[in-house]
Write the structure tokens for this entry.
Amino acid sequence: QVRLVESGGGLVHPGGSLRLSCAASGIIFSDYVSGWYRQAPGKQRELVTSMSRSGSTYSADSVKGRFTIARDNAKNTMYLQMNNLKPEDTAVYYCNANWGTNYWGQGTQVTVSS
């Protein structure tokens, strides 16, 4: 059984930082294209950042220079370091693994507010 379990969300002030984690079981992250998506209230789910099987990364323009994706193959865990957070980053964040089959975590809430 495949499980992706996110953690690390919470409430943070504008300009603050958070690190999200996504622990995988049942799959090996490095065998998949892995990434972080987010969905804000009333909006469609959008890709934030992703990492290929070889380790190359992509980030949406809205988060470039602020968010960093990382993967620890030994722990089979993916991370999203979020710095200089803005209110518009408020959303539920989901981790994803995709290579033919698409797997999703349950989501973790990130709220950026003063």
